Amino acid sequence: MITKRIIPCLDVKDGRVVKGVSFVGLRDAGDPVELAALYDRTGADELVFLDISASHEGRKTMIDVVRQAASKLTIPFTVGGGIRSVEDMTETLRAGADKVSLNTAAVLNPELIHEGARRFGNQCIVVAIDAKYQEDTGTWVVYTHGGRERTDWNVLDWAQHVVELGAGEILLTSMDQDGQKNGFDIALVKAVSDTVSVPVIASGGAGSAQDFIDVFTQTKASAALAASIFHYEEVGIMEVKALLRDRGEEVRWIPTR
Hints:
It holds the Pfam family His_biosynth. By secondary structure, this protein is an alpha/beta fold. It has a single domain, classed as TIM Barrel (Alpha-Beta Barrel), CATH 3.20.20.70. The protein has eleven helices and twelve strands. It has helices at residues 32-41, 54-57, 63-70, 86-94, 104-108, 111-120, 155-165, 186-195, 209-218, 228-231, 237-246, and strands at 5-13, 16-21, 24-30, 47-51, 77-80, 99-102, 125-134, 139-144, 149-154, 169-174, 200-203, 223-226. α9 (209-218) links the parallel β11 (200-203) and β12.
């Protein structure tokens, strides 16, 4: 049985962790380095760091913050936001990241996925997909630039394409559910995880431990990501894992340090 992963996400803007609802209305959630250390101690399987305004502002990821956070971690660390070239990937990995996440840059230059996978291995390349349901077409569409710009890509087509190019993992965020705390978008996660052969990280909508059980039992998601419920201590990581273990799901069990 594949071990299910629980992943906190640090959405970082101006050096601080922030969280909003459907990508807007951001509020402060703390210092990224302190939170990274906390999650490393309290049972997180991996950590995702997303510089959420880098692509929109046309700048690189905050490498100094990445380096400081990486120094506190013993768990895998994925970094995204503002990574637009193989050179940016190299700098980010050298700063301590284990994987890089591509979103806007991948849509603008899909060959970057292939170049990164060839250089660093598929396991290092995560493609983040921000998905929003379109009533007019009855499908999910890919958005870029922190959810600001709609593309012509259908989510399922894009997911298949990035895997063909060499993506080793997909970080799938439902913009509709993001910050709503009423559960993951099961239909979206199921559709994508049924379509691709690589691990899918479900993101957007977690509000309770039960939401993690639902996404793992109703879809093929390999991991589930959340932000605010962990940042504001509404739900504990080990609380989620305890419920999953009771339901027969395989999780990495460690005592809180």
